[in-house]
Fold each of these.
Amino acid sequence: MDEVSVVVAHSERATLRVGDVFLKVDTDQGRIDVEVEAMALAPVPTPQILWRRPPVLALAAVPGAALGRLGEPSTASPEAWAAAGAAIRTLHDAPLPPRPGRAGRSLDELAQELDGECEWLVTSGVLPADLVTHNRRVAEAALRPWAEVFTHGDLQVAHVFVDGDDITGIIDWSEAGRGDALYDLATLTLGHQEHLGDVVAGYGTGIDLDVIRAWWSLRSLLGVRWLVEHGFDPSSPGCEVDVLRSQM
């Protein structure tokens, strides 16, 4: 009998693996609706949906291995990173999906959330004030108008699977929708800045590297409290706090 392994689990949702089947348990069926809809529309490889019985969505495992993991060096080739860039460009060039996504929050919403998180990081003593202040200034470049595209919305490096130099699947679409293309590219390369050039080579034109760096700061500042409150350690080597320090 196949063993049950916990891929990720926190108070909002959990993902279990049983053999070649992933079981996503989420009491927020709106997130599952977004995921199912986005995978049907996305012009890139996505997991096969096996069945859905709320609150569970069953997906077939995609072949290959993750492009990398946050906090660990990636063993994938430069060609695989470039292929990821090309796949993201294909997604961004696709017709817009009907919903706004995580990468499509308004500038006012983002600025208010960012200010609130920066205040909490300093007053709670989680991060030094100078580190927060500097990264808040860097993040400002991301707070500008953008042309909406079809975004994944949570394009962590662990969500892109490769076999050799080929993309075999992109997983976890619950944050997908209309948003900023550079948010996706920044999320993919967060903690793997050395592969940004490879991703850009595959993606093509239209990339402002200063905005990519701004999103690295912005995403990290916004993520620290959530990670702490859900039992994760953003200060692990190579993770969000290290990304913020690297921006100094």
Amino acid sequence: MVTLTGKTLNVEEVKRVIFQKEKVEVAAESMQDVMNSHAAVEKIVQDDRTIYGINTGFGKFSDVLIDACDVKELQINLIRSHACGVGDPFPESVSRAMLLLRANALIKGFSGVRPALIEILVAFINQEVHPVIPQQGSLGASGDLAPLSHLALALVGEGEVFYQGEIYPSLKILEKKGIAPLTLEAKEGLALINGTQAMTAMGVVAYLEAENLAFKSELIAAITMEGLNGIIDAFEEEIHLARGYQQQVDTAKRMRMFLSGSKLTTRQGEIRVQDAYSIRCIPQVHGATWQALDYVKEKLEIEMNAATDNPLIFDNGNKVISGGNFHGQPIAFAMDFMKIAVAELANISERRIERLVNPQLNDLTPFLSPNPGLESGAMIMQYCAASLVSENKTLAHPASVDSIPSSANQEDHVSMGTIGSRHAHQIIRNVNKVLAIELICAMQAVEQRGVEKMAEATRAFYDKGREIVPSITKDRVFSKDIEACAEWLKHC
């Protein structure tokens, strides 16, 4: 059970909730903060104070006053009108993460919602009911308005949800589960959709996949090292301590561990004096990716515990401030950084693939073919890797350098952070396939060298990999091997 406090949620807890379906609860003191904050909103309505989003319109309509009798209708109108998302839905894992992060933000006690709203969010999580949320349509400032509106639609019984692998009308599943649809009260619609939970949820799911791939990339590179009789000296600790980057030191240490006991690696001068950069500089390049991932993780954990709606309520309602915490710039930058850093894992992997298949760069059979000429072997796998790497270069263009005004120029600078997070996820999926190709080629190369000479760690990974992709004894449809290996790498 993960206990939400609004302050302490971390990536590991999110991982357990998303992928292991761990249930959540709200800390009692946090629920008290929610009640206090809601009481402040009720008093504002009773006192007929003019507060943005409670009894005014939204965006450019912020100067339009709303009668007290219409504040509930104001909130449901907001959700319906802002549910303009288009395109394929986010993966269920992202939808689940959005529920979790929205609940965690609202229990901080700055948003003025009722406990009932928190309870339905928690019920959706614990009963594995996940809103269908289109991926496209958010500018990443004023919050993820369109995606979060689709989340809110599911809560009020007007949207669609994933349940047990199928899509249903939300109301049907609410009735099945005995959950009363939420009726929005003052500020609750705005509190639900003003926030960065779409980009942050997509970001944390992407980060978790990237973290797993970054570890796997080193193990795969170690098998490539063996397939190419790589020089182990380049990973000696002194070299990396001399530069001073801890992530580089750590990567080199893992490479030494993976290759410990291998009879397929060499020492400098035995076969060649130096390896190419894609081999020799694994700690420097992969280590730099880890530096970026550490930065991304830090920003995600701050944002997961942030109050990102507007306005925010302080001092029991005596101070209500309109600000801009919904602006996704910190996450937009982090997503763009992750895009570039993870794309590099594929860039360097593709160069290692080339060294494995190019007969001018090794002494293996050309293109690792069992019958060169008659059979092409891994020739076109390298083409596929090159295509994915090139696509990543386009996707890695920073989304955060763009902005476009909205709401009649009231909202005149936006982050595009949600686009950045989506592109990061696409890049990570492409990198996964490139690494799968490297692994397939590396396994074929070590077979030619002698798998009995492999290190213990790399041999264990090779044996598991061979359960997914059999040895290349003749040409076949390698697309199926690449997809199967990529899927395995995501979960192994």
